[in-house]
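Dear colleague,

Thank you for sharing your sequence with our group. We've completed the structure prediction you requested, and as agreed, I am returning the results in plain text so they can be pasted directly into your records. Please verify that the sequence below matches your submission; if there's any discrepancy, let me know and we will rerun it promptly.
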Amino acid sequence: MNSANLLPLFSQLAAPAFFDMLAAAGLGALVPAIVMEIISLTSGKVMPFKFAQQTASLFVAFMATATIAFLGGVIILGRSLPWLHTWLLSTQSPALPMLIAWGTALLFGTVYAFTFPALRNRKFVHILIGLPGMLAALSTFPLTIAAAPDLLHALAAGQEPPLHPLVIPGPASLIWPFAVQFLLLGVALAGGLGMIFILYRRKRDDWGRDYYNYALPAAARWAAPFMLLQQGGMAWLLAGISPADRDLLLHSTFGPVLGAGALLAVICCILWICVWRSRTPMRLKGLVIAGGLLCWAAHLCAVTMAFVLLPAA
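Please find the predicted structure tokens below.
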């Protein structure tokens, strides 16, 4: 692919990448929610509990939006791809484990989110309700990546993908670097977009200035480290392919995409660290919003690399 074709590809993937970003952030949100509730349980502090509750609300909002977008996309694409519904829902489909994990995460995560008030004095029980949702959410990342190559290859070739149960790939597969990258990216996005969600919900929740001075840096502490860690997925991928393939990738049209994704991730981290270290984080709304927009751009770069490389996995 030459550079002239790169811009149309970006434009085609921008909207799907946005909803994929919401899905990744939603799936990743149960990690900080449950960890912060455990901190509240062991420390007796109320701020981590409130943060966990608000992060669980983010899970519901983002997962509901992503689910509606997914169903709408399936309906629209199903008109031109008559095999799509069968491929997704067949008991022999490699996508079935992903759909089961998604549904399990949505079920347990939603129950977890809506039982915060009722179980605020029974945090241990409440955490046990959320744990299956968190594990299902985390498993959705590798299951989705593992099912993607057949679908992407079929779309590129203009043919129907084969129906076969999901096969766990070997350790040398490109599936694993991408799975690790998107899992870590999901937690980072939960923190980065969580800051925007906190600002959006401020008037509705109104938990006081002290809470918001706590919550924004807390979200930034989840966002920045995981955004840096997710770069390890691409480093793993580059280390795992042959030197010839690595040189070919880095000197192709997608070399700058890889570099742009890494640079955008670093810029996001710098913005979030400013929020993390600030004594008046509510005055840094511009940085929070800018970080969210750059998240989308960084995620678009990651999705583009997956779209191009996963068919060969």
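Summary note from our side: The two ends are 18 Å apart (CA to CA).

Kind regards,
the structure core
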